[in-house]
Amino acid sequence: MQNFSKIKTLSNWIYWILSLCIVIIPVYYLSFWFLINNTDFPLDAITTGATPIEPRTLPTEILAAGYLSSIFPLTVLVFVLLSLRKIFQLYKKGIVFSLEHVALFKKTAKLLVFWVLVSIAYESVKSVLFSLENPPGEKVLSIGFGSDEVTVILVAAFVYVIAWVMDEGRALAEENEMTI
Amino acid sequence: MAIKINLDLMLIKRQMKSNELARLVGITEQNLSILKRGKAKAIRVSTLEAICRHLQCQPGDILEYTDDD
């Protein structure tokens, strides 16, 4: 029972942190493209792949294209966060093992893998956009798959295994519930 | 299901109501209803013992095996 109380309390905190992230992360994505020309942060310090871009401001069309391309990874990430928030909402209510949990864990794992794929595409688009106005021969298309991506895919695999564990737990909980 | 629960019959024989038995055994009326309808996946020995004690019967009076085949 003590654990149950701890689960509820901590889940409540995590629920609100995730809610905050759902608001903050889109703002970050938006501000990245809208403020990129207006901050003290030097544009040439942003590296796309291994090649730094020329120091200059980006034209509006490129900013718009960059913002539009950021919508895809942002949307997937928001869905990941919404899915996680739903899991903790159930924990918050005291529902620990349910079919909904199993479905949500599987959905989160799949979304994480999808997020990695979309993020790779987004980073590639960024590399093209940042170097679009470079002189011929200095334009860059960078496609990266690094340790960050591997980490997220590993986490997705763990989450998928947890979904199976949750399913076993749900079956046990159901059996326990039907034991008189 | 191959195991039939004859709790209703025993309650009639002993002229006892479900809610009274549930109270005496220490389970909820909802759980007793699950048991009576044969929806339970398992019955605890302690629950069976309490039912038998209060209905003054044997486990065999409540549980009946029928061959479905």
What this model shows, in words?
The complex is a heterodimer of chains A (180) and B (69). Chain A has 180 residues and is an all-alpha fold. Chain A has 4 helices and 2 strands. Helices cover 72% and strands 2% of the residues of chain A. Chain A has a two-stranded antiparallel sheet. In chain A, helix 1 (2-34) packs antiparallel against helix 2 and helix 3 packs antiparallel against helix 4. Chain A is elongated and about 75 Å long. Chain B contains 5 helices and 2 strands, in the order βαααααβ. In chain B, helix 2 (18-25) packs across helix 3 (29-36). Chain B is globular, with a radius of gyration of 11 Å. The model of chain B has no long low-confidence stretch (mean pLDDT 90). Classes of the chains: A mainly alpha (180), B mainly alpha (69). The interface between A and B is small, with 5 and 12 residues.
Short description:
The complex is a heterodimer of chains A (180) and B (69). Chain A has 180 residues and is an all-alpha fold.
Jot down its keywords.
heterodimer; A: 180 residues; mainly alpha; two-stranded antiparallel sheet; 4 helices; 2 strands; elongated; B: 69 residues; two-stranded antiparallel ribbon; 5 helices
Largest sheet of chain A: 2 strands, antiparallel
Helix content of chain A: over 70%
Distance between the termini of chain A: 20 Å
Overall pLDDT confidence of chain A: 86
Distance between the termini of chain B: 11 Å
Helical content band of chain B:
55-70%
Please give the oligomerization state of what you see: heterodimer
Extract low-pLDDT stretches of chain B: none
The assigned structural class of chain A equals mainly alpha
Unreliable runs of chain A: none
Q: Strand order, main sheet of chain A: write it out.
A: 1-2
| Beta fraction of chain A | under 5%
pLDDT averaged over residues of chain B: 90
H/I helix tally of chain A: 4
| Helix and strand element order of chain A | HEEHHH
Q: Assign an overall shape of chain A.
A: elongated
Shape of chain B: globular
Strand % of chain B is 5-15%
In total, how many beta strands of chain B? Answer: 2
- How do the helices and strands follow one another from N- to C-terminus of chain B? EHHHHHE
Organism (chain A): Sneathiella marina
Protein name (chain A): DUF2975 domain-containing protein
Keywords (chain A): Membrane, Transmembrane, Transmembrane helix
Transmembrane segments (chain A): 12-36, 62-84, 111-130, 150-166
